[in-house]
Sequence to fold (245 residues):
Amino acid sequence: MKIDISDTKAELGTKAATDGADAIRQAIVKTGAARIVLAAAASQFEMLAELIAADEIDWSKVVAFHLDEYAFLASTHPASLRRFLKERFIQKLPQPLAAFHSINAEGNLMLECSRLGRLLAQNPIDVAFIGIGENAHVAFNDPPADFTTDEAYKVVELDEVCRRQQLGEGWFPTIDAVPTQAISMTAPQILRSKRIVCTVPDQRKAKAVRDTVEGPVTPDIPASILQEHPAVTLYLDRESASLLT
Fold:
């Protein structure tokens, strides 16, 4: 695991996007296409803006997958994560993607997990753009996370810390409005990505970052599984890195 610490969120976003853009270009040169995974979260604001502006990416050769989505939340809801990605990333690209496989969690959740799993199995992911939650979750894999599943996506329960994070970030008006379930890419599936760009700003993530980097690999610290990936970089700011020794 590599760690890169920036002085500002803007600098952090630039570095993470530059890393990810390089991985996308390399995949296109090597195989004629690139497959990426995108997280929809406040931590990704700066990185996504810089990725959109990256030079010399043929987005028509890029297939994008969605990391997670709330169960039974309409795509028109302000907190919809697929709405987030469409408005903040996909619609701002200079050319359309080859495909965007968003998560539709408004119907049969198990069938949707199966559908996405079949699409993912066609080819490996070249780069996953992810973050880490306040409870050290990756995607919506709250502790204790399932480190042994063979599934690509699964239905998960959202814990209290995760739900309060969504409330605190302003996505929902009350805690009761925050869904209790989601469809999430699993931790083992995230680790199957060739490259992982993990963007984690803010003081409120400092403990999760410390536990992820310096603690044991355990389902109680879901992001600790990133220690086992050969090509992952954590992009931090001074605040999120403040508890590292």
